[in-house]
Amino acid sequence: MAEQLRVGVIGCSPYSDLRHLPALKSHPRVKTVAICDVIRDRAEQMAKKYDIPLVSSDYREVIDKGNLNALLVVTPDDTHHAITMHALDAHLHVLCEKPLAFNARQAREMYEKAEAVGVKHMTFFTFRWLPQYQYLKELIDEGYVGRCFDCHICLFTAGGRGGKYSWRYDRNHGNGMLSEYGAHMIDLARWLVGDIAKVSAHLRMFLNRPGPDGGVLDPTNDSVMMAMEFEKGTQGVMQLSSLAYVGARAYMDQRITLHGESGTLEVKATFTSAEIRGVREGEKEFHPLPIPNRIIEGVDKANPFHVRSQFTGNYVFINSILQDQPISPTFYDGLKAQEVIDAAKESHERGCWISV
User: Do 245 and 251 form a contact (C-beta atoms < 8 A)?
Assistant: First the structure.
């Protein structure tokens, strides 16, 4: 591998500016050499800010002319498949934002192609790297709850309040809250408990939103209720909403509870705080389980979500290429989450349990 990794970025949303581009700029062995957005002015602004030489409004030009080693796909859900498949044709390593694709068929094609080409591939499930979930995973693996009976996951955010148009709530471009945060929570559930076998979901669009350019919207969902059965027999419930007013809880209110044969673990988190508590068989009171310094070292404790997720995932991707090391989460993990998303949509439409 060359001394510096030549990377291109497709998509210039505020999220690219917040997480991906600063992380790439901070890595000593990365050179961001190409950037693309369908709104060319936005791409030019980002190119100027991050000193990127090649600017385009066509992802094909970036892939074909950028002399790249790797590509980051940071675009709406319905575009991931075409961009990624073109990058894989060019034998590029690819990091793709979650959800991996628009549906499971596309996700499987992306995973199988990446494996056949033999490149590194990552689905950007940032919640895995947050300190509270790194430690929660350790506690589970060490047997704190033992055999898990019940898994409850809730995430409430204010991101969908106001009722403005967003491609995320447009059925032609996204799968709503089910994909926006549901993909993250489904991946966490798989990572912590195991694969999901079947689901029963109810999806709602509470707000009447305009369509693109003020037209009529083909709506998807801004609220999700989903029952789950895991392959190991664990039962689960997931509740998601983008309409919650959470006051001082800094935009997001998230809770995970795991009940098991040996004990119970619970996590309460916002964008600016995180707490793990537990109680084991024979104990009467829940007690705090502080995150060890080896996990939280270098993280601003007043802002654990932003700092950890801003750099860790990109560094895992880049370093896996430079050092030819295994990587996780991969496109396979993106595929497994997408299969649950598809099953949830089918369950809502048919009004019954659907096997994944």
Answer: no
| CA-closest candidate to residue 199, choices 189, 209, 191, 208 | 189
Q: What values do phi and psi take at 286, rounded to 5?
A: -65, 145
Report the distance separating Cα 183 and Cα 341, nearest Å.
7
- 256-229-80-75 Cα dihedral, nearest 10 degrees: -20
Please report which helix (H) or strand (E) contains residue 350, including its range.
Answer: helix 331-350
CA distance 21 to 14: 10
Q: What is the pLDDT of residue 310?
A: 58
Dist. CA 154–CA 41, nearest whole Å: 38
| Model pTM above 0.90 | yes
In this structure, what token pair is assigned to residue 238?
A: 């997931």
Q: Is the peptide bond preceding residue 329 cis, with omega within 30 degrees of 0? A: yes
> For residue 344, which of 202, 206, 233, 232 has the smallest C-alpha distance?
202
Tell me the average confidence (pLDDT) per consecutive run of 10 residues in the chain, 356 residues long: 87 93 94 97 97 97 97 97 98 98 98 98 94 96 98 96 93 96 98 98 96 92 98 98 89 95 96 92 96 82 62 89 96 98 98 98
State both tokens at 2: 């060359």
Burial 275-302, CB ≥16 within 10 A → b, else e: ebebeeeeeeeeeebebeeebbeebeee
> What is the distance between the terminal CA atoms of the chain, rounded to a whole angstrom?
39
61 token code pair: 């030009």
Tell me how far apart the alpha carbons of residues 226 and 272 are, in angstroms, rounded to a whole number: 27
Query: What's the pLDDT score for residue 295?
Result: 87
Helix, coil or strand: residue 277: strand
Cα atoms found within 13 Å of the Cα of residue 56, Cβ hemisphere only? 16
| Residue in this structure with the two tokens 């148009």, named with its chain if needed | 165
107 contact partners, CB below 8 Å, separation of at least 6: 81, 99, 100, 101, 331, 334, 335, 338, 339
